[in-house]
Design a protein that fits this description.
Chain lengths: 448, 313
């Protein structure tokens, strides 16, 4: 676990020699703790101290890349148990399992290639393919891989191979970046370790339960394989939640290095609905890779959306794109309400307009995702900017009135907006979204 | 290396709420974060209530219409239909009382509630239309009409909690207290309500629900924070069962309404709509809800199956 500035200071010579560029050892220690200075800058730090710092600065959960030259995916390096503490770093990789003896390999690859969906300005897609050696034959696997590479050489790959000899012969000829080799277990551990070392690729190791996995990851680390992925083979949702919680907690809170690795989950179930719920649990609760058995579009949409929601940054307000949104089916007589693009503001205001049952235009202005008062205080939701936004939005042409409703919290902008937006009348709305339905009803009635 | 499972130390336990008269159901009672059975007790599984409305719904999309339209003109028939689908509890939402709907009078609602209570065995949750002022007129009357039936009444909010909490107390019911996506607001409202003499052991927090893709992560994280505050940090005002009013939010979204012809890249509507409700519900189970209010029987079915599986570890 990372050392604090004071802990680092205790390890330094405390001579204040300034050779590191800082005026005191304490100042230097603080910068080292924040990762803004390198311990190597201290000429008097002993090798022992450096080693200790290096050990302490390694992330508690190892992170690494896999994938092709064109598409590298980073997994691991998570730092918290709950997303409100800090952003979850590297979003769960969604992979489709394709069996090497499947006759429809090509159409499955097409499904992966066509899986992308845009949501709130982000392109989401099936990230990787898990190619499973279900035939047990090296030739069949190579043939399948050839088809895959011909169609989609950029897709990050996970090789589901349990036979070390087959793994060797596949990887020997493979030139497609850095795939994950998934298939190490108690029986083949040493040989699989050799393959992973030789081709410098991440290795996925599986055993039933956390304790068994620990002995395997320790042994693999001693053999020199660093980039590992864990599968505890949970057989129920409850076991998956338990194992993943124990793994993440052990790595982060107890510094247990043998569990400081990303987790892979095979969500596969007979029933698509149930598979999605297992995958959802894996996304919410700490799996870095989720392998799926099929990828119909409706299934992708729900998993992509969940992944996007869970991995959003709780400290950076979620934003909505600047635009004039329709709530219901507004026409040229419908009211227009302007507010900021903080997602929560948008959802609450939109919801309350819906509750009012009065169709309206909702003008969402880009304020870097700040709420109304904060955006106003930061000068992002000012009279000038609101006037400019309304003018440039072209909404004037869609309306036969010129009345703009502004949030109650910025009532003081009324005159200034009317000044800058010629011909418009500004109506001061409510402070809280919950007052919108009553407000809108009165407003519409008063205009009639 | 010898390995011991790192266990969390908990200081609190969620109170157990029992509701219903003929048939009783329990929620809460657990002593650790959701489903972590290796470090806590879980005397009761989360409960799913089938939502019905007091009049023909104005905004149910086709996927719900096809399930309920043959029974929804009569809340008693609707409730019985849900019982036939395996409902363990019914949540009656008095939508017709909303001033923008039929603005139905409190007495009409009371009659409907009495009829339902006399004809079904399932425990009942009675919800207003979420109109702050109107709810404070309607809910006291229905709380009185259902006196002795040990229901859950909701929702008390900052603007109307006094009348609603007082009447729930007089009627012997449990109470849902709703605040807007904020740990401190939830705590504040519970303090205000308990200061009136309302038993904390009969309170349920609604931290304000949302649908997947529409503010979902706010509800999810607020729930996690409430659970951590209540169970680990010893904040007794937040050590209270939680409800996720899932159906109400999910069935307004575009994802459960747009057909495949409208948006081809979203795929089949039926599966998409059902799973949208189920995933939203299941994730809120993981963040701490003990009570779910849901609409689609298929979504409820798979959520139940998921709960069974979550309890196996």
């Amino acid at each position: 676990m990372a050392l604090t500035g004071i802990e680092i200071f205790k390890l330094l010579p405390k001579t204040n020699c300034k050779k590191c560029g800082f005026s005191t050892c304490l100042a230097f220690a603080m910068k080292v703790a924040q990762g803004q200075a390198d311990i190597e800058k201290c000429p008097e730090a002993t090798e022992e101290v450096k080693a200790k710092l290096k050990e302490a600065s390694t992330p508690p959960i190892r992170g690494f890349n896999f994938g092709s030259e064109e598409e590298k995916i980073k997994i691991g390096e998570e730092t918290v148990l709950f997303r409100h503490e800090k952003k979850f770093n590297n979003p769960t990789v969604l992979a489709l399992q394709i069996r090497d003896d499947d006759e429809k390999i090509e159409s499955l690859i097409d499904d992966v290639l066509n899986s992308s969906i845009e949501r709130v300005g982000q392109i989401l897609k099936i990230d990787a393919v898990f190619l499973k050696n279900s035939s047990g034959s090296a030739d069949v696997f190579k043939e399948a891989l050839k088809k895959l590479m011909a169609k989609a050489s950029h897709i990050p790959l996970i090789f589901g191979i349990k036979d070390p000899a087959i793994a060797y012969s596949v990887l020997e000829k493979f030139k497609g970046g850095r795939p994950i080799l998934c298939g190490a277990n108690e029986e083949n551990l040493s040989e699989m370790a050799e393959v992973a070392k030789k081709y410098k690729i991440p290795l996925c190791v599986s055993a039933k339960g956390v304790e068994k996995v620990i002995s395997l990851t320790e042994s693999l680390k001693n053999k020199g394989v660093e980039d590992l992925i864990i599968n505890t083979e949970p057989s129920t949702a409850g076991e998956l939640l338990r194992d993943n919680t124990v793994i993440r907690r052990s790595a982060l809170k107890k510094g247990i290095k043998a569990l400081g690795y990303p987790v892979i989950t095979f969500a596969m179930a007979e029933d698509d609905f149930y598979e999605i719920l297992m995958a959802s649990l894996a996304i919410a609760k700490y799996s870095s890779i989720v392998v799926l058995s099929s990828i119909p579009r409706w299934k992708n949409l729900v998993l992509f959306t969940l992944k996007q929601n869970i991995y959003s940054d709780p400290q950076v307000p979620m934003q909505v794109k600047q635009d004039i949104y329709k709530v219901g089916e507004p026409d040229e007589n419908s009211p227009i309400i302007v507010t900021t693009n903080f997602a929560l503001t948008y959802f609450l205001v939109k919801g309350e307009i819906e509750n009012s049952k009065i169709p309206a235009w909702l003008a969402i202005m880009d304020c870097d995702g700040l709420s109304v008062l904060t955006a106003w205080a930061a000068g992002k939701f000012s009279a000038g900017k609101i006037a400019q936004f309304i003018k440039e939005s072209g909404i004037e042409e869609k309306l036969n009135h010129k009345e703009l409703i502004i949030p109650g919290y910025v009532a003081m902008l009324k005159a200034a907006i009317e000044d800058k937006l010629s011909g418009w009348k500004v109506i001061v709305g409510t402070k809280e979204a919950s007052g919108i339905p009553a407000f809108l009803r009165n407003y519409v009635r008063s205009r009639q | 290396m010898s390995f011991t499972i790192p266990k969390e130390t908990y200081t609190g336990r969620i109170p157990e709420i029992v509701f219903g008269k003929e048939k009783k159901v329990f929620i809460g009672g657990e002593s650790s974060l959701p489903f972590l059975k290796f470090e806590g007790d879980f005397p009761h599984k989360p409960l799913i209530a089938f939502e019905i409305q007091d009049d023909i719904p104005e905004d149910y999309p086709d996927e719900l219409k096809s399930v309920y339209s043959s029974v929804w003109d009569d809340p008693v028939r609707w409730a019985k239909y849900c019982e036939s689908l395996g409902a363990e509890a019914i949540a009656l939402r008095l939508m017709s009382t909303h001033p923008d709907s039929k603005n139905a009078k409190p007495e009409e609602s009371a009659d409907k509630v009495k009829r339902i209570l006399s004809e079904i065995n399932s425990p009942l949750i009675i919800l207003g239309s979420n109109h702050t002022e109107k709810d404070s007129e309607v809910l006291p009357v229905v709380a009185d009409a259902s006196r002795g039936y040990n229901c859950i009444i909701g929702k008390a909010q900052e603007g109307n909690y006094k009348t609603i909490a007082a009447s729930a107390m007089a009627g012997g019911h449990s109470l849902i207290a709703m605040s807007e996506l904020d740990v401190n607001l939830a705590k504040q409202l519970n303090i205000l309500i308990t200061q009136m003499g309302f038993q904390k052991e009969k309170l349920i927090i609604d931290p304000m629900c949302s649908a997947l893709g529409y503010g979902f992560e706010y509800t999810y994280s607020v729930m996690e924070r409430i659970r951590i505050a209540g169970l680990i940090q010893g904040d007794s005002m937040l050590c209270v069962p939680m409800v996720a009013d899932v159906g109400f939010y999910v069935w307004k979204t575009k994802e459960v309404q747009a057909t495949e012809e409208d948006i081809p890249e979203w795929g089949s509507l039926h599966e998409r709509a059902v799973i949208w409700e189920a995933v939203t519900a299941c994730c809120f189970l993981l963040s701490g809800a003990e009570l779910l209010i849901m609409r689609h029987p298929e979504a409820i079915g798979i959520t139940k199956k998921f709960i069974e599986q979550l309890c196996l570890s």
